[in-house]
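FORM 7B: Structural annotation worksheet

SECTION A. Query
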Amino acid sequence: MADADAAGGREAAKGVSWFELAKADTGRIPDHLVEDHYQFLGSEPLDVARYTSPEFFRREIEQMWPHVWQYAAREEELLNPGDSVVYENAGRSYVLVRQADNSVRAFHNVCLHRGRKLRQRNGRLGELRCPYHAFSWNLDGTLKNIPCRWDFTHLKSEEMSLPEAQVGQWGGYVFVKEAEGGPSLEEYLAPIPSHFERWKPEQCFTTKWAGKVIKANWKTCMEAFMEAYHVIATHPQIMPFTADANSKYDLYSDHVNLMITPFGLTSPHVERRVRDEQWVIDQFLKYNGRVVEPGMTIDVEPGETARQAMGKHNRARFGKLYEADLSDATDSEVQDAYTYNVFPNFSPWGGMGPQVVYRWRPWPDHEHTLMEVRLIQRLRPGEEMQPSIPMHFLQEDENWEGYFGQLGAILDQDMGNIPFVQEGMNCSKTGKLQLGNYQEIRIRHFHQTLDRYLER
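SECTION B. Predicted structure
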């Protein structure tokens, strides 16, 4: 298919395009969100072995994971010197420690004596001490003590410092990378730092955080959150106020892409009949769990759209909540889903309202994933950052709705698909997956980046 044909396909959905919505917004949407960064990347099918093969998973472990920047913690988990976070993924374990100079260092979480993990949980430390034989290290990773030192005359202290991984920090997030070299964190994340300057994630704190082990490959889980195409079948209750087929998809560097899904506008898939703007916003208030609070009511004024009414209401509501002037916030920024993806497994949402943060990690093999969902919210002026709440680990019989409310109900609907996608791929006759050229472009973009790492 030619590039022009592929580009034309994205205009086939009926309804108002994102570019028209941007022009009609009450405020001025930042230029970079109005620019078109779509690219046609081909129409070839994907091989299901990418999700089902232990050998493919092994290649990811060896050739991809050591070379990518991984989101390991939020800054509020490491507020004070001595605070530590254990981050584990893809066969590696690290202990992140806040240093006396306020920097963060990431040590391989393995005793250099007999190989026991030094830490199994987060917490405040005075030293890194192995529970097995009491070998200990200072918080800067240098050797502190070997019991019965006379029996280890062959070990030199300067050669017994704990191995380290690279550490980078941006926007209140702490990242680690195993291998030396490659792009800096700022280069890796671009253009996210410039996009998020308005939204200030570094001034946010965690309000909710839950994780659950899902019976599916980590990519199977992640890709359910990279397109809005599934809304029509999986989340029909949100179609009255979600313009799913009019979502905008942008590709930036190899490592970053974006989906903007407009809210306050009815899906073009919904049967066209006379429905007023009040009906749209009433459905919004009933089923949206991120920018709506229980019991909230909004009256749409004459000549006003549901989208404009929600924008006006949330500018005032979030401004009061944050004690901030949000008069320049656009209708879009206080309601739409700005879902960024950072390769390979980190998805921070943008916008002026509460922000969603996703992370997916193999847990521990190619057919299980620890999926985490975190909500962050901006601090008020003068409000001090408090230590992060711990992750609530959902058991197999616990659903997301019980923890997140209406937002969790959406996640539970996704869970009604994901394990069965994995089961289906395991018994696929054709062994092929077909992707849409526009609405599923972020999935293709992800896999082409993954291939670049596997071909190293």
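SECTION C. Observations
The chain has a mean pLDDT of 94. The CA atoms of residues 101 and 229 lie 47 Å apart.

SECTION D. Sign-off
Analyst initials: ____
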